[in-house]
Automatic annotation (TrEMBL):
<dbReference type="InterPro" id="IPR002347">
    <property type="entry name" value="SDR_fam"/>
</dbReference>
<dbReference type="InterPro" id="IPR036291">
    <property type="entry name" value="NAD(P)-bd_dom_sf"/>
</dbReference>
<feature type="domain" description="Ketoreductase">
    <location>
        <begin position="3"/>
        <end position="176"/>
    </location>
</feature>
<comment type="similarity">
    <text>Belongs to the short-chain dehydrogenases/reductases (SDR) family.</text>
</comment>
<dbReference type="InterPro" id="IPR020904">
    <property type="entry name" value="Sc_DH/Rdtase_CS"/>
</dbReference>
<keyword id="KW-0560">Oxidoreductase</keyword>
<dbReference type="InterPro" id="IPR050259">
    <property type="entry name" value="SDR"/>
</dbReference>
<dbReference type="GO" id="GO:0032787">
    <property type="term" value="P:monocarboxylic acid metabolic process"/>
</dbReference>
<dbReference type="Pfam" id="PF13561">
    <property type="entry name" value="adh_short_C2"/>
</dbReference>
<dbReference type="InterPro" id="IPR057326">
    <property type="entry name" value="KR_dom"/>
</dbReference>
<protein>
    <submittedName>
        <fullName>3-oxoacyl-[acyl-carrier protein] reductase</fullName>
        <ecNumber>1.1.1.100</ecNumber>
    </submittedName>
</protein>
<dbReference type="GO" id="GO:0004316">
    <property type="term" value="F:3-oxoacyl-[acyl-carrier-protein] reductase (NADPH) activity"/>
</dbReference>
Length: 234
């Protein structure tokens, strides 16, 4: 049966790959986007996850189009990298507001319908940086590490209602962001990855699709690394 799915930040990169994967599996998939245009073939709603009003309005549009959200993928995120000594308070709080508090906003809105139905899937997209740490990314690492504690608390709250909550932690992925790095930077990154390469967005999407599917019905509170071995042991 086709499910109502919402992927935040789903108009490019990892989010778009996730949306395409779930759509190919037969789900009705909506994506949120903050700028640009919605991707072709998917229902798009403009939404800034730092705004509770935007989130409520986006969910209302999705519910009217395809019914209450049964699968939520919280993927929207930003970076504002700089060393702590020169990091502004806004650079810290704005990253947490989007990456961590934004996930709180969309999850809170989604669980109301899931609890009534006594079934649902929530997948939060974290990062290997949230496990390993990264110089110049204290704000980003804190936000992505926070998703783990958030997910595991929700898993305990919502398990009795048939709702699973899990985390996917990607490593370095072939996106516009990594393509902008210099050849030397890319070489150094790949040298630290046991598999010796970056991930394709579709590989992250496959892991998300598994956690969102029926085969993962007995998995909750888990952190699934898709990082080529970079973060192993964490």
């Amino acid at each position: 049966m086709s499910r109502s799915v919402l992927v935040t930040g789903g108009n490019r990169g990892i989010g778009l790959a996730i949306a395409r994967e779930l759509s190919a599996g037969g789900d009705a998939v909506a994506v949120t986007y903050r700028s640009g245009q919605p991707p072709e073939g998917l229902f798009g709603v403009r939404c800034d996850v730092t705004s509770s009003e935007d989130v409520d309005a986006a969910f209302a549009k999705v519910e009217a189009e395809q019914g209450p959200v049964e699968v939520l993928v919280a993927n929207a995120g930003i970076t504002k990298d700089t060393l702590l000594a020169i990091m502004s308070e806004d650079a810290f709080t704005s990253v947490l507001d989007t990456n961590l508090t934004g996930s709180y906003r969309v999850a809170k809105r989604a669980v109301k319908g899931m609890m009534r139905k006594r079934h649902g899937r929530i997948v939060l997209v974290s990062s290997v940086v949230g496990l390993l740490g990264s110089a110049g990314q204290a704000n980003y690492a804190a936000s992505k590490a926070g998703l783990v504690g958030f997910a595991r608390s929700l898993a305990r709250e919502l398990g009795s209602r048939g709702i699973t909550v899990n985390v996917v932690a990607p490593g370095f992925v072939d996106t516009d962001m990594t393509a902008a790095l210099s050849e030397d930077q890319q070489k150094a990154i790949k040298g630290a990855i046991p598999l010796g390469r970056t991930a394709r967005p579709e590989e992250i999407a496959k892991a998300v699709a598994f956690l969102a599917g029926e085969d993962a019905g007995y998995i909750t509170g888990a952190v699934i690394p898709v990082d080529g071995g970079l973060g192993m042991g964490h």
